[in-house]
Amino acid sequence: MGKVVVVTSGKGGVGKTTSTAALGAALAQRNEKVVVVDFDVGLRNLDLIMGAERRVVYDIVNVIQGDAKLPQALIRDKRLDNLFLLPASQTRDKDALTPEGVEQVMADLKRYFDWVICDSPAGIERGATLAMRHADMAVVVTNPEVSSVRDSDRIIGLLDAKTMKAERGERIEKHLLLTRYDANRAERGDMLKVEDVLEILSIPLIGIIPESSDVLRASNIGAPVTLADAKSAPAMAYFDAARRLAGEDLPITIPGEKRGIFGKIFGRKAA
Amino acid sequence: MSIFRLFARPRSAPMARERLQVLLAHERSSVGNDLVTLLREEILAVIAKHVQVDPDKVTVKVDRDEHVSILEIDVEIPRGAAVMAA
């Protein structure tokens, strides 16, 4: 039986889709069978980030409504044989996702894949609660910024109340993924530090992804950042996060601790 | 660098941290609002099966302190309210 992971955040634009694609690809690069599922019905974007937007024929709503079989809707990644995408529909209304339909799709996917990674829509409405409903683990994507931290706190509350695991009295595993982190700004006192966010949200940290132009570049070319440039700082951070998700115990490193302009000039002279 | 800091703007991250801590402490304690609404509806439904009550005269409140939460239910039943067959 595969593990179901929801990538969620409450707030939009913090990096849920980027992280879903990067973590999904990183796990597939470890030779695990992975499917990434877009739950953002009406505003799908995971297809675009994965570079599969022109290959979408059927979507999750077609499967739920019985217009297509699940294997017909799954899109195999062109770079990795064991990575698949189940897209969301672009046009139909949000009520097209039914709790029973989602339950069936999740149960089927768990049988074939090692990892089912669900990209949640922003907000706390139906789409977001359905995306988290069947999760074994949650990755809470947070930016070091007040509104994102507040919304993450709200989502953590929902994870503890509205998931199947929570309703059965079990604890859902929650992990914090801090994205768009700028170590220099945090050091200067102009951005919340890792410790600040951890202390406020009090869930374990699974990774710190540095703010980086490599993320935008990867989305421009339609590849998860771990595939677009495996040596880039964000890709390495995602690889580490994927290993921790798979249960490895790795020390957390703060990526991209570059020196400022003065540090560069004086640091080099001193060296 | 410290000489530059003297003229720099005050650091903003500590303010962010403090504002969040105050706000979330408040918001976490009121998260139970959903539960209160649910309790209110269900309690009202049970009472309404047996006694006629005005929905606006039913208050459900949760007070929390460090150790316990107190659930307070206040139902106003008008004199002579028809008691339905149980």
From TrEMBL, chain A:
Residues reported to bind ATP: 11-18
BP GO terms, sorted: division septum assembly; negative regulation of cell division
Residue span, CobQ/CobB/MinD/ParA nucleotide binding domain: 5-224
Record Gene3D superfamilies: P-loop containing nucleotide triphosphate hydrolases
Gene Ontology CC annotation, any one: cytosol
Keyword Cell cycle assigned: yes
Keyword annotations: ATP-binding, Cell cycle, Cell division, Nucleotide-binding, Septation
NCBIfam families: minD_bact
Family: Belongs to the ParA family. MinD subfamily.
Oligomer and partners: Interacts with MinC and FtsZ.
Chain's role: ATPase required for the correct placement of the division site. Cell division inhibitors MinC and MinD act in concert to form an inhibitor capable of blocking formation of the polar Z ring septums. Rapidly oscillates between the poles of the cell to destabilize FtsZ filaments that have formed before they mature into polar Z rings.
Protein name: Septum site-determining protein MinD
Automatic annotation (TrEMBL), chain B:
The keyword Cell division is annotated on this UniProt entry: yes
Pfam families: MinE
Keyword Cell cycle: yes
GO biological processes: cell division; regulation of division septum assembly
Domain of life where this protein originates: Bacteria
Function: Prevents the cell division inhibition by proteins MinC and MinD at internal division sites while permitting inhibition at polar sites. This ensures cell division at the proper site by restricting the formation of a division septum at the midpoint of the long axis of the cell.
Protein name: Cell division topological specificity factor
